[in-house]
Specification:
The chain has 434 residues and is α/β, with parallel strands linked by helices. The chain is 39% helix and 12% strand.
Length: 434
């Protein structure tokens, strides 16, 4: 059966099912459509499905034109999971957040898998792309799939291939980012390579699903640890009255042995603030205490409080307290030039300021209305900026440095600027580096 499955992928005769049409699943669906595969996109949110059927996008950096083209090419968004049996491949792109105790929450993965089970049939491949701890694929997905009577490696196939999307990055796309793939058996790996080989420029095979799972964690832990290092360096440099951004720019001129990482108000996005804790949790099962990773987590988690201390100091210089001050937060997405709000440190800053009694507003050209979030609630709309509006605030907090902001206007109008992103290189009396 393996050879038949590989052949239909290589000939682009397979039907691809993508489960979860968010920042990972939607561009993947578009890519499969581009090269000629029939794609069925599954999502439990009927409002997303309705928008996509109209050829429109709900993600800013994914243009509606690409959705319209994909639909014209046969892309079918649906909430009808009974159609799972039509697909030859089922690619799971669902969230893997942390719970309130900062432990892995696999409910989205497991509930989605359970929803697929009644419709699985021989000849299908299931690929998990959600970031998770080593062992998830073979400990959680494998027994569920085989509970249906299928035998993985013989008449069904199971792989893990972690997503590597970087929303809004113009230099890399779904097609050009190399794709790691690990199979539960050698036969599974061969099917996985055929699944992705027609749509990704370079597929990187590894020996197992566990190796692929740990690869994804290592990538993001590497970033989290280095960001933790540079965030700690920022605090040290500030005490010494040295601009850390100047230091990073100078160090980055070294052509070897140094990779620049940049400090900020905290970690954001779905990967870097979350992924390290998937490994620290799993490592405890093996009696390993991941001190280095946890230390970086402590440093990064403390950065919002450091920023608040800078806001406090800046307002004190104006003989004002945070309580009662009007504070404008610039940028609430987790990184610049996108609308992705996942784990944004800006939101934590807004909550801390509100809890201290500040009158908080925000301006973000990419997020016109504060979205509904599971753990955060603000009834706010983005403020349009002009000289008078900016001057009306006691403090302007640069939390996400979107290119669309007029930084010269902000500098000329603001009474106080707290800059967490190193946007202002020249010192000024009313600019506080944070």
């Amino acid at each position: 059966m393996k050879n038949q499955v590989v052949e239909i992928f290589n000939k682009k005769q397979a039907i691809i099912g993508v489960v979860g049409l968010g920042y990972v699943g939607l561009p993947l669906s578009i890519r499969y459509s581009e090269v000629g595969y029939k794609v069925i996109g599954f999502d439990i949110d009927p409002s997303k499905v309705d928008v996509l059927k109209q050829g429109k996008s709900y993600i800013e950096h994914i243009g509606s034109k690409s959705i319209e083209t994909a639909v014209a090419q046969g892309f079918e968004p649906t909430s009808d999971f009974s159609r799972v049996s039509e697909a030859d491949a089922l690619i799971l792109c669902v969230p893997t957040p942390l719970n309130l105790y900062r432990e892995p929450d696999l409910s989205f993965v497991l509930n989605t898998t359970d929803a697929l089970l009644p419709y699985l049939r021989p000849g299908q491949v299931v690929s998990l792309e959600s970031t998770t701890y080593p062992g998830t694929t073979d400990e959680e997905l494998l027994p569920r799939i085989e509970s249906t009577g299928l035998k993985v490696g013989e008449n069904a196939f199971l792989v893990y291939s972690p997503e590597r999307e970087d929303p809004g990055n113009p230099n890399f796309s779904t097609r050009t980012i190399p794709k790691v793939c690990g199979g539960y058996t050698p036969e599974c790996l061969e099917v996985g390579l055929a699944l992705y080989g027609q749509v990704i420029d370079k597929v990187v095979p590894v020996s197992s699903t566990r190796a692929a799972e740990l690869t994804k964690l290592l990538e993001n832990i590497h970033r989290a640890v280095n960001i933790g290092l540079v965030n700690e360096m920022k605090i040290v440099a500030d005490k010494m009255d040295i601009d850390i951004h100047e230091v990073i720019r100078a160090a980055a001129t070294k052509p070897f042995g140094f990779v620049p990482y940049y400090p900020g108000p905290g970690l954001g996005g779905h990967c870097i603030p979350i992924d390290p804790f998937y490994l620290t949790w799993k490592a405890r099962e093996y009696g390993v205490h991941t001190r280095f990773i946890e230390l970086a987590g402590e440093v990064n988690s403390s950065m919002p409080d450091y920023v608040i201390s800078k806001v406090t100091a800046g307002l004190n210089g104006l003989k004002k307290s945070i309580n009662g001050s009007r504070v404008l937060v610039l940028g609430i997405s987790y990184k610049k030039n996108i609308d992705d709000m996942r784990e944004s440190p800006s939101v934590e800053l807004m909550e801390k300021l509100r809890d201290l009694g500040a009158d908080v507003s925000y301006s973000d050209p990419h997020v016109p209305v504060f979205p509904k979030m599971r753990r955060h609630k603000f009834e706010l709309k983005s403020v349009d900026l002009d000289h008078a509006v900016i001057a009306g605030y006691d403090c302007v907090l640069v939390a996400t440095d979107h290119e669309k902001f007029d930084y010269d206007l902000i500098k000329s109008a603001a009474k106080l600027i707290v800059d967490t992103r190193g946007r202002y290189q020249q010192s000024a009396k009313h600019i506080v580096k944070a």
